[in-house]
Amino acid sequence: MTLNDRVLGAFALLFAALLAWQGWGLEAPFSYEPVGPRAFPLLLAGVIALCGLWLMVRGREQAEPNPPGANVRITWMVVLVAAYALIFASLGFIVATALMAVFVGRLFGGRWRDCLLGGLGLGVGFYLLFDKVFDVVLPMGLLTVGG
């Protein structure tokens, strides 16, 4: 089987169905926002499903093979995302996000200095955005004051 847009579209539809199925059961023990926790996964499933349908209907292109080294970087990205999920609560949002950004930056050839500055900026910047603008409570982990 050759990989083309239609095959990718079929996988996207399957993934969207799985996401919707898992997201449908999300309920908060108390109402803390107007739409609840299931809105994001269902919205994301809808967008993925629409893209998958588009690829199945309009897709005719063969997929290009990955360039050398891409599969290794993809594997490392999966490892980094899994590690991020594991350290998120204990290290906190700012530290975990900064570390994730540093290692992803290095994975794609960034210089240490640029990756460190970018990671710190992303960690602090996104924390301020979610905490102050969106009023989303994020774990502080290692940076917890007095705790």
UniProtKB/TrEMBL annotation:
Signal peptide: none
Record has NADP as a keyword: no
Keyword Transmembrane belongs to the record: yes
Keywords for this protein: Membrane, Transmembrane, Transmembrane helix
Annotated TM spans: 35-57, 78-104, 110-130
Domain DUF1468: 7-139
Official protein name in the record: DUF1468 domain-containing protein
Source lineage: Bacteria, Pseudomonadati, Pseudomonadota, Betaproteobacteria, Burkholderiales
